[in-house]
Amino acid sequence: MNAKNRLVKIGISGMIAAAAMVTAPAVASADPITDFLCNSGSAQFCPVFLPPPPPPPSLQAAPAPRSAPAPSTFEYKNCDAARAAGAAPVYRGDYGFGQHLDRDNDGIGCE
Question: Whole-model pTM?
Fold first, then answer.
């Protein structure tokens, strides 16, 4: 092979290498050897980065405790008033319940 053909082949190879360097994404790593091995097409040497594991349950934030609704200060005067409002029977914890409406103390007033 003569010198002219050799220079042409070197020139073409150089242009291909320069084009590959220009079009390849610029990725910087702390380890140039890993960069070389991973970018050479051999995935055998490429590190695999896994996401960090979730924190243990003891370190996770506990959900805020739900507070019970504030008890109503309103109480029906008597069972006739509860029936007229369409609320009878009235259950303990319901709006308008009063202990005086529950004679047998079972949690149900005006039964």
Answer: 0.35
